[in-house]
User: What shape does this take?
Amino acid sequence: MWRFFIFLSVMCISSTLPVLFASDVCALSNVNDVKEIGFDEKLASAIDLDTEFRGENGEMVSMSSFFGQEKPVLLSLAYFTCPRLCLLATDGVLEVINQMGAFRPGKDYTVVTVSFDPEESPDVIGEKAARYRGALAGGAEEAEDWHFLTATAENILRLTDSVGFRFKKDGEEFAHPSGIVILTPEGVISRYLYGVQHDPSNFKLSLIEASEGEIGSSELLNKVLMFCYQFDPVGKRYALAALNVVKAGGMVTLAVLVTFLYLMWRRERKTH
Assistant: This one.
C-alpha cells in the first residue's frame, strides 16, 4: 500500500510541474506588479517597420527587411538568457513549426525572435540562434528565415509598445507574458496566440488568415478553410463556423441537384 501512495505522490508532483513552469506570465517577486505584465491586443494596427535591430553578428537590420515579401511573419518576444519561461516559449515555437508539415519557414512565412534585453551580446544571440535553427525539421534552407535579434532599449520599447507586449525588469531577470504575434506581409497585426505551446491547427489557420490564403500549395483549400473556421475571441482559438458550413453544404447540395436535373433533362431529350 505504501508503494501505491509514493507512486501517487510522484505522479501528482510531476503533473503539477509543467503548470508551474509553463504559466503564460513569468512569476513576479512582487505580486502587486502583475497588472503591469501582459498583452494589450492591437489587432489591425501596423508596427513601426523603420525600427533597427542587431543580429548575432552585430549587423544592423531594419524590421522592414522581413516584410513586403508576400509572406506572413511570426514574431516572438523572449530574452535569450531567460532560465524559465522564454526557454519553454521558444521551444514551443520550434515544436509547432516542426509539426506544420507542408507549411514551412522561408517558403510560406518568416520567423523573427526579438530579445527585449538590450544588454544581450552577439555571442548569446548566436548561441541561441544556432540551437534553434539546427533543430528545424527542414534543415539549413529553413534556418535562414528564423532571425534572432535585439536592439537598444528605445527600439525594443518601440516594438513592444506597438504589439502591446508589457514586461518589467524584476531584479536580474524580466517578468513578461508568453505568446506569439502573427503579422501580415505588410506588418499589420493579424492574430495573437498565447501560451508556451501552440495547437498546429490554430497556428496554420492564423498564418492562412494573415496571408489572406495566399500561402501554401493550395490557395483554394485555404480559402475554404477560412470560410469554414473563424477565430473565437473568447476561447482564443479557431472554431468551426457552423452557419458557414451549413451555407456551404446548401450550395453544394443545390449544385448537385441542378446538375442531376440537367442531366435528366438531356437524357429525356435524347430519348425523344
